[in-house]
Amino acid sequence: MSTSNSEPRPIVAYVASLELMKASSLLPSNKNRSTLVHTLARSLGLFAPDFSLTRTIALVPPQSAGFAELNSYHTKEYLDFVLDPKNMTTDSEDASKTEFGLEDDCPMFEGLPDYVRLVGGASLTAVKMLRNPRCDVAICWDGGRHHAQKSHASGFCYVADCTLALMALRRFTEPSPSGETSRKMRTMYLDLDLHFSDGVSHAFHKTSNTSNSPHLLTFSIHHAAPGFFPASPLANLPTPDDDPFSLSLPLKQGASNRTFARVWNCVERVHAAFDPDFIVLQCGVDGLAGDPCAIFNWSLGPEEGSLGWCINRVINEWRGKKLLLGGGGYDSPNAARAWAYVTSIALGNPLSIDTQIPDHPYFPLYAPSFILEVPAGNMQDQNSEDYLHTIDKAFDDVVATIARRMTE
């Protein structure tokens, strides 16, 4: 894409602030990750006005979400508890902590009320930026908390920012050429995290299936196995009796670039049948090689099937506006590498995967390679050709059903 000197470049809205970075860096599961993410992006020059000739970055501070905005999905009881600083002490009533999921993998911590407001508000701020005619892509790396439920925290996720963003996008309409009626715009949520997007999928399961004009589709690519978090019947391959607008594509251990390249055709076919106006892309990076989860063997890029290759196709080959969110990723330097690389893709000037990490305060954490790439390891890919064929057959039926429903 090119623009003449007289035309303003399209905007990539990058939602960030010192306040958001500090609050996100307190998250017990990802201590200081937010600081690494944003400082690496800055040190690589991504925030410079001249980084790209085709798109320009706009640094957008998040608006803190108000109670009413959070309450549009979360229950009043949950918000009353989690937003009250007095409840963040270890002396809080154990029964309430259990009821609201604020223990085990979601412990309370000082700063949690601000974290919930800021992360929820950050993803909503990104959605608001997409109303700007010049803004094609909005990025919120501190968002993507896809396990949070309506009335309780879960899986390191305290606020359902993905769900709040999707609810906000569902309210977007497009005036008809005649001006008499408006068309409700379609949104596709695509989740690349290692873990199933249970919070999002549960929130919208069957809501489009009962509509005469479906306008929201959720699609999660993830690992699923007995005992692997989160357990949900929605995490399995779709059957002809399932909701075709709430989709899952489970992969076995060791999923590599080869496997992602092979199954990406299913993603493209679903996208073509649904033809969304907006794409919300949850870019969890806990499937990258080297993550402590040690389940997938995905590399960063740019080879066919890599994380960067998949995201590039969404950003640069699919029509419509895109919202990019963060998610899992427990090797913080690798998460920073990945999201810096994806940001450069969104800006239309992909960094070389061999780019040297610049000298900056967190430089030593990028040892031993000190380059951008996150290479694949030696893990065996257990996604056999027979299993991949089973996936293809399941999505044959899904795509046919979606195509039929979209023309009814």
Can you describe this structure?
It is globular and about 55 Å long. The protein is built from twelve helices and ten strands. The protein has 408 residues and is α/β, with parallel strands linked by helices.
Task: Give me a quick take on this structure.
The chain is α/β, with parallel strands linked by helices. The protein has helices at residues 18-24, 33-43, 67-71, 76-82, 94-99, 112-129, 161-170, 198-204, 257-274, 307-317, 332-346, 385-406; strands at 11-15, 56-60, 135-140, 173-175, 182-184, 187-191, 216-223, 246-251, 278-282, 321-325.
Primary descriptors:
about 400 residues, alpha/beta, Arginase, Chain A, eight-stranded parallel sheet, two-stranded antiparallel ribbon, about 35% helix, about 10% strand, EC 3.5.1.98, histone deacetylase, chromatin regulator, histone deacetylase activity, hydrolytic mechanism, hydrolase
What is the topology, as strand order, of the major beta sheet?
Answer: 2-1-3-10-9-6-7-8
Calculate the terminal CA-CA distance, rounded to whole Å.
35 Å
Helix/strand-derived category reads alpha/beta
- What is the element string, with H for helices and E for strands? EHHEHHHHEHEEEHEEHEHEHH
The name of the CATH architecture is: 3-Layer(aba) Sandwich
Percent helix, as a range, is 25-40%
Largest sheet at a glance? 8 strands, parallel
CATH class: Alpha Beta
What spatial form do the alpha-carbon principal axes imply?
globular
**SS strand fraction:** 5-15%
Q: What is the number of E strands?
A: 10
Unreliable segments of 5+ consecutive residues: none
In the CATH hierarchy, the third-tier topology is known as Arginase, Chain A
- Please, what is the CATH homologous superfamily? Histone deacetylase domain
Number of helical segments with 4 or more residues: 12
Total discrete domains: 1
